[in-house]
C-alpha cells in the first residue's frame, strides 16, 4: 500500500486531482469512481481548476457512483446522483449521459444492485476509485464486519448515520432514508487504482488500522492492503497514529519512479 502524508486537505486534493488529470491525459474516456461527502471536495475543486485552466480535458470522462439512497427519486436534491451532478459533473463539464449509478428508486432493489455491477463490467471497470473512510474504518457504506468479498448490495443505515445526515434534509431525520445501495468491498477492489483520502485527527485510528493493522472485516478499509495499486493520502493529523509515518514520508519522496500517485 502506498501512503502519502501531506500537510493538509488542500494539498491532498491537489495531489489526487493531478493523478486523475494524468490518467485522463493517458486515457481521455477513463471511468472515474467518485464519492460524496465533504472529504473529496478539495479533489473536485482542484480538478475543476485544472479543467478551467486548460490543463486537462474531461469532456470524454465517465463517472461512476459509489453509493445511493434507496427510495429517493434520482431528481431529489439530496439523492447522491443529484449531489454528484452539482459537485462533480457540472463543474467538470461532464454530461449526465456519462454517469453510471445504481437505481435507488427501482422496484426490485436487489436486481438493481446486480445490474449496476454488470454495468460497471460492461463499461470496462473503474479506472480510479476515490474513497473516504469512516472513523470505524468503513468505506462506502460497508460497515465493520462486512464481507471482504461483498458485491453491490442493500445496507441498512445506522441510527447515528441517519442523525448525522439529517442536516441535509432540513434537520428532519424522518426524511432520511433507512437504506442505501453501496458497492461492496469486492466490487470496490476491482477498480484498477484505489485512492483513499483521510483528513483530521478523528480518522487517525481508522487510518492506522487500515494501513498497519491486520486485514480484517472489523476494519473494512483494511481490504485495500490486498489491492495491487492502492494509495492512501492523509494529512498530518490523520497520520498521527501511524507507527511508521517517517518511513512513509521517506519512501514517497525518494522513490525514483515517482511521477504522481
Helix fraction by DSSP (H/I, runs of at least 4) = 25-40%
Strand ordering within the main sheet: 1-10-9-6-2-3-5
Largest sheet: 7 strands, parallel
Instruction: Tell me the fraction of residues in β-strands, as a range.
Output: 15-25%
Catalytic activity: alpha-D-glucosamine 6-phosphate + H2O = beta-D-fructose 6-phosphate + NH4(+)
Keywords: Allosteric enzyme, Carbohydrate metabolism, Hydrolase
Protein name: Glucosamine-6-phosphate deaminase
Function: Catalyzes the reversible isomerization-deamination of glucosamine 6-phosphate (GlcN6P) to form fructose 6-phosphate (Fru6P) and ammonium ion.
Description of the molecule:
The chain is of the alpha/beta class. The mean pLDDT is 94. It is built from 8 helices and 10 strands. It has a single domain, classed as Rossmann fold, CATH 3.40.50.
Amino acid at each position: 500500500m502506498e501512503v502519502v502524508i501531506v500537510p493538509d486537505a488542500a494539498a491532498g486534493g491537489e495531489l489526487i486531482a493531478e493523478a486523475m488529470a494524468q490518467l485522463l491525459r493517458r486515457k481521455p474516456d477513463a471511468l472515474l469512481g467518485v464519492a460524496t461527502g465533504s472529504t473529496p471536495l478539495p479533489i473536485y475543486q482542484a480538478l475543476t481548476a485544472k479543467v478551467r485552466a486548460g490543463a486537462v480535458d474531461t469532456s470524454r470522462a465517465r463517472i461512476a457512483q459509489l453509493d445511493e439512497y434507496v427510495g429517493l427519486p434520482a431528481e431529489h436534491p439530496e439523492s447522491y446522483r443529484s449531489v454528484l451532478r452539482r459537485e462533480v459533473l457540472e463543474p467538470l463539464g461532464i454530461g449526465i449521459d456519462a454517469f453510471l449509478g445504481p437505481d435507488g428508486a427501482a422496484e426490485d432493489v436487489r436486481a438493481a444492485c446486480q445490474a449496476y455491477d454488470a454495468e460497471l463490467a460492461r463499461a470496462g471497470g473503474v479506472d480510479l476509485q476515490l474513497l473516504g473512510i469512516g472513523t470505524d474504518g468503513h468505506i462506502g457504506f460497508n460497515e465493520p464486519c462486512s464481507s471482504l468479498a461483498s458485491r453491490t448490495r442493500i445496507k441498512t443505515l445506522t441510527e447515528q448515520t441517519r442523525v448525522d445526515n439529517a442536516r441535509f434534509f432540513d434537520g428532519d431525520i424522518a426524511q432520511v432514508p433507512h437504506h442505501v445501495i453501496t458497492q461492496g468491498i469486492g466490487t470496490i477492489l476491482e477498480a484498477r487504482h484505489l485512492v483513499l483520502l483521510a483528513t483530521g485527527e478523528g480518522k487517525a485510528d481508522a487510518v492506522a488500522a487500515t494501513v498497519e493493522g491486520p486485514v480484517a472485516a472489523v476494519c473494512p478499509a483494511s481490504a485495500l492492503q490486498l489491492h495491487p495499486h492502492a494509495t492512501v493520502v492523509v494529512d498530518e493529523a490523520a497520520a498521527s497514529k501511524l507507527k511508521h509515518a517517517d518511513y512513509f514520508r521517506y519512501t514517497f519522496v525518494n522513490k525514483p519512479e515517482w511521477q504522481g500517485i
